[in-house]
């Protein structure tokens, strides 16, 4: 596996964990225990996604397909946690990331 593939896999795994933890918060499961891990995971996903974009760029591969996901992710703090705009933005981040990965993987 190349460094780019490892980075994409790690980012996808972290993003999946973030979405699942966010879903548990949205459904009200253990809100008091999962809020800070959710924020820590958000930070990890953001750093991982930025690192993946950097690795793609350094490898000469198209990095632009992941930029919309990063921009949406960075705009998450502007939404209200627990509200529809927050989970909709989170879902949009995930979908744009998945589309970006599809574009990158199909560009070989």
TrEMBL record:
Keywords: Membrane, Transmembrane, Transmembrane helix
Chain ranges passing through the membrane: 6-28, 40-57, 90-107
Lineage of the organism: Bacteria, Thermotogati, Deinococcota, Deinococci, Deinococcales
Protein name in UniProt: Uncharacterized protein
């Amino acid at each position: 596996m190349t460094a780019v593939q490892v980075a994409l896999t790690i980012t996808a795994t972290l993003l999946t964990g973030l979405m699942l933890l966010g879903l548990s918060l949205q459904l009200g499961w253990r809100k008091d225990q999962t809020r800070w891990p959710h924020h820590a995971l958000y930070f990890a996903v953001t750093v991982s996604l930025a690192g993946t974009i950097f690795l793609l760029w350094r490898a000469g591969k198209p990095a632009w397909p992941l930029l919309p996901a990063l921009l949406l992710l960075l705009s998450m703090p502007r939404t209200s946690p627990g509200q529809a705009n927050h989970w909709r933005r989170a879902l949009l981040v995930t979908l744009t990331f998945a589309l970006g990965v599809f574009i990158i993987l199909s560009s070989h």
